[in-house]
Amino acid sequence: MKPKAIKSDxxxxxxxxxxxxxxxxxxxxxxxxxxxxxSKYNLSGAERVQLLYKRRRTQGLCIVxxxxxxxxxxSTGQLYRLCEEHRNKIDKGTVK
Length: 96
Fold this sequence. Notes:
Helices cover 36% and strands 12% of the residues.
C-alpha cells in the first residue's frame, strides 16, 4: 500500500492513538519525504491477514482484491465483504 501523506499535527494525533493502544494508528505514513511505518511486532501470517481484512471491511473495500464495494446486503443493510466479481466466484459459486 502507498503511504498516506500527513502533516506534523496529524502525526501527534497518531502518536496519541498509539499510546492509547488503538489499532487505527497502524499504517504507513509519509512526512516531509520520510516514510514512517507503524505495525504490530511478531504477528503471525493469520493475524496479519485478519488485520488487513478488518481494515478493508471498515473502508468498504473487497477483502480479496481491494476494489470498492457498492452493493449492500438487503437483510443487514451493510456493505458486502466482497465485490460483485468475487461474490459470484466465491459465495455463489458461479462465474459470469
